[in-house]
Amino acid sequence: MGNTFGAGDDQLYLSNGGTDVFVEVLLLAVSGLARCPWEYRFGGLIALQDQGLMGRGAVGFDLAEIHWGPTAPQRDAAKGFVLRAIELAGRRYRWELLGYEPPHALAYLRRFREVVAGFEPPETAPDRHVLPDLSELGCCVRHRVLSHVAYLDGCAFCRGGTRPRSE
């Protein structure tokens, strides 16, 4: 059992352990870069991929379910943000919080970057969109990462997300 992140048939498929690693390294980067509402909402989506909250094998998303923005410049800016976050994560941004060296994380990030780079955000909003509302988001003060306020027991790192995993 695993999880997929992608666009239609162009997907990054990860085991549950790989998903934990991917979400943690991407969450660190997204949380560090987010500055505007869309970026915070995307960070909230990444935070919701925490299998400690949602269940093992029960996370993942399709890029087509994200509302990237109503105008071409907004869609381009949103996609640019995601690509910058992937790049920052690939530079091992704040990986010291992990407490271990994830051997496959860079490959996961490279593949996800390929998927995002090849994706063309649609001009219209999807029928079902997955970005959480800003009112649903919080920030873990201890770890400085975005989290979902409905889960007040802390972020992925507070709940033990920094223990070594098999990928």
What does this molecule look like?
The chain is an alpha+beta fold and 167 residues long. Helices cover 40% and strands 14% of the residues. It has five helices and five strands; from the N terminus they run ββαααβααββ. It has helices at residues 16-33, 37-47, 51-54, 72-90, 105-118, and strands at residues 2-7, 10-15, 60-62, 137-140, 145-148. A three-stranded mixed beta sheet has the order 2-1-3.
Query: What ranges have pLDDT less than 50 throughout 5 or more consecutive residues?
Result: 162-166
What is the string of SSEs from the N terminus onward? EEHHHEHHEE
User: Helix tally?
Assistant: 5
* Helix/strand class: alpha+beta
Q: Approximately what portion of the residues adopt beta-strand conformation?
A: 5-15%
Radius of gyration, whole Å: 15 Å
Mind describing the biggest β-sheet?
3 strands, mixed
Q: What gross morphology would you assign?
A: globular
> What's the arrangement of strands in the largest beta sheet?
2-1-3
What is the average of the pLDDT values? 89
**Terminus-to-terminus distance:** 13 Å
For the record, the count of structural domains works out to 1
Helix coverage percent: 25-40%
Q: Got a strand count?
A: 5
Q: Layout of SSEs?
A:
Elements (H helix, E strand, L loop, with lengths): L1 E6 L2 E6 H18 L3 H11 L3 H4 L5 E3 L9 H19 L14 H14 L18 E4 L4 E4 L19
Parallel strand pairs: 1-3
Antiparallel strand pairs: 1-2, 4-5
Helix pairs in contact: 1-2, 1-4, 4-5
